[in-house]
Amino acid sequence: MKSLWFFDDVNLFNLLCPHKFKAYKAVHDFDAYRKKDYIYFEEDSANKVYLIEKGKVKIGYYNEDGDEVVKAILSRGELFGETAILGENKREEFAQSIDNATSICPVGVDTMHELMRNNKTFSLKIYKVIGFRLRKLERRLQLLLFKDARTRLVEFLDELCSDYGYDCDKTGDKVIQHPYTQKDIASLIGTSRPTLNILLNELKEENIIEFNRKEIRICKKIA
């Protein structure tokens, strides 16, 4: 299956942003956010959908103990807040900018519904995105609840390989060029950055991976 965050390798911002539709081009704008700014909080009214023009956004919630649980880290071209399309009235999560120059295109739910009514292909793509997103979130939360940190990392690397990996013809290795920092990855698999470093270095010492800031090379199947 292709990436659950992307859809047929299409940048969703380019596909869905209202400025691509003549009737809406003049009446929509972009919002700018700095690092740690919130786009919305839990319990806020769910009346918009958001597309990322640039930057990165963290989606998460706080559990009963007050600990932050990160559901996703999204980047340029991706959609969030999409459950408002399905009738969600209040947010069940927060969305926070984690870049210093994040640009967001907010789209009112009424506008999105009108676009979907007027274009069946557009509507189908929206529902596919929502379905893929929910399936991936369910899988990630199951990992957080039932798997140890190494298993969560291995599963995440497998996910990255599906989303961003390609075969290196010369060696047969899988090369993953991804947008995440180590802090992002630690948040997504529910561990600390020091623990992530230990796990990555263990895999490196076992000659399973090589890694740097923007690339992970999988040298053999991870067990």
Automatic annotation (TrEMBL):
<protein>
    <submittedName>
        <fullName>Crp/Fnr family transcriptional regulator</fullName>
    </submittedName>
</protein>
<keyword id="KW-0804">Transcription</keyword>
<keyword id="KW-0238">DNA-binding</keyword>
<feature type="domain" description="Cyclic nucleotide-binding">
    <location>
        <begin position="12"/>
        <end position="91"/>
    </location>
</feature>
<dbReference type="InterPro" id="IPR036390">
    <property type="entry name" value="WH_DNA-bd_sf"/>
</dbReference>
<dbReference type="InterPro" id="IPR018490">
    <property type="entry name" value="cNMP-bd_dom_sf"/>
</dbReference>
<dbReference type="GO" id="GO:0005829">
    <property type="term" value="C:cytosol"/>
</dbReference>
<feature type="domain" description="HTH crp-type">
    <location>
        <begin position="147"/>
        <end position="222"/>
    </location>
</feature>
<dbReference type="GO" id="GO:0003700">
    <property type="term" value="F:DNA-binding transcription factor activity"/>
</dbReference>
<dbReference type="InterPro" id="IPR000595">
    <property type="entry name" value="cNMP-bd_dom"/>
</dbReference>
<dbReference type="InterPro" id="IPR012318">
    <property type="entry name" value="HTH_CRP"/>
</dbReference>
<dbReference type="InterPro" id="IPR014710">
    <property type="entry name" value="RmlC-like_jellyroll"/>
</dbReference>
<dbReference type="InterPro" id="IPR036388">
    <property type="entry name" value="WH-like_DNA-bd_sf"/>
</dbReference>
<dbReference type="Pfam" id="PF00027">
    <property type="entry name" value="cNMP_binding"/>
</dbReference>
<dbReference type="InterPro" id="IPR050397">
    <property type="entry name" value="Env_Response_Regulators"/>
</dbReference>
<keyword id="KW-0805">Transcription regulation</keyword>
<dbReference type="Pfam" id="PF13545">
    <property type="entry name" value="HTH_Crp_2"/>
</dbReference>
<dbReference type="GO" id="GO:0003677">
    <property type="term" value="F:DNA binding"/>
</dbReference>
